[in-house]
Known about the structure:
Elements: E1 7-11, H1 17-27, H2 39-49, E2 53-60, E3 75-81, E4 86-93, H3 102-117, E5 123-124, H4 132-140
Parallel strand pairs: 4-5
Antiparallel strand pairs: 1-2, 2-3, 3-4
Amino acid sequence: MAVPDGMMLCDLHEAEYEEILALWQRSGLNVRPEGRDASDAFAQQMARSGSTQRVIGLRPLPAGGAGQSDQPLLAVAVLTHDGRKGWINRLAVDPGWRGRGLAQALIAEAERWFSDDLGLEIFSALIHTQNQPSRALFARVGYQPVDVVYVSKRLRPDA
Length: 159
């Protein structure tokens, strides 16, 4: 799927953290701005990720020559990989812009990056069981549920 008309795909950086966090919050993602989603944690992730992480987003095309950063961030996804599998993380679309293909465009770009640039053949996402809209979205674009048990250990409650 191509980027929807009137939108531009952009790579996001540490300087856009506040805008990314605000979009995650508007979209209803469970964020921990004092923990794993804190500004300094995001900066550390970006600095140490090298080629293992890419943060992408969609903005409206600039009107009248305005700069890219002048346009609001409407969708975001954090892409990561472990060398054998690509992961689509923290996918969020502004509630007022849902149903217009923005999430599908980000998924398509994730798959393109994983496959064409990195040579990966497995793409994955973790979705909370109760998040039916995300489950339906990923099913529409060909993702199959896998029965797994996710376990985690946190060194801090807000990590």
